[in-house]
């Protein structure tokens, strides 16, 4: 059974670092027959700041871009969030996107690739709590890209695949995500 995994890029600024880890994790996924990966770039979904009359759990957002976003999310079986850390949490653009969906994420797994001063770990700790509210199953394992590989890629043109510890972390995370994706897909019956 193949699982459709969405790699959600959580930052949108022009000079973002996010494209490096998003591309790297996508290449690693492509080596696995059990996954089909798609990149979901929030730049393609420029939603307004949330101003719907009710939460998406109570009423589907009317905004046209948010509707496109929710439709895309609904098509996927699992998610890998790729994000930097903004003020010890996730970027506002990612939180806003998550606020615009609900049922589309329910009973699906989430995994994480982050970067920043502390490997973006504090952003992911916040994101894990948000995922609980969205009724998602979070993988225990994640990839946290620390300062050394971050700077090597950004400033020296190195590749994330040059760092064995990151490759090992990604492999462990993808093994876990694969189990959850298949198990929950069976459980959802879809
Ligand atoms: C508004 C803002 C807040 C930030 N806050 C943190 C922070 O709290 N901790 C940290 O380690 N890095 C922080 N950074 C550095 C980012 O993690 C780093 O710039 C990263 O590359 C941002 O992701 P992006 O390049 O994909 O936008 C911050 C960056 C920005 C733009």
Strand content: 15-25%
- What ligands can be seen in this structure? flavin mononucleotide
Low-pLDDT residue spans: none
The whole-angstrom Rg is: 16 Å
Number of helices: 6
Which of globular, elongated, flat, extended, rod-shaped describes the shape? globular
Domain count:
1
Q: Would you tell me the structural class of the helices and strands?
A: alpha/beta
Calculate the terminal CA-CA distance, rounded to whole Å: 11 Å
Quaternary state of this entry equals single chain
CATH classification class: Alpha Beta
Q: Helix coverage percent of residues?
A: 40-55%
Secondary structure tally: strands: 6
CATH topology: Rossmann fold
Main β-sheet, in a few words? 6 strands, parallel
H-E order: EHEHEHEHEEHH
* CATH superfamily grouping: Flavodoxin domain
CATH architecture heading: 3-Layer(aba) Sandwich
Mean pLDDT: 97
Annotate the secondary structure layout.
Layout: E1 3-9, H1 19-30, E2 35-41, H2 64-74, E3 78-84, H3 92-99, E4 109-115, H4 121-133, E5 137-138, E6 143-145, H5 147-156, H6 164-188
The chain binds flavin mononucleotide (FMN).
Flavin mononucleotide (FMN) is lined by residues 11, 13, 16-18, 84-88, 116-118.
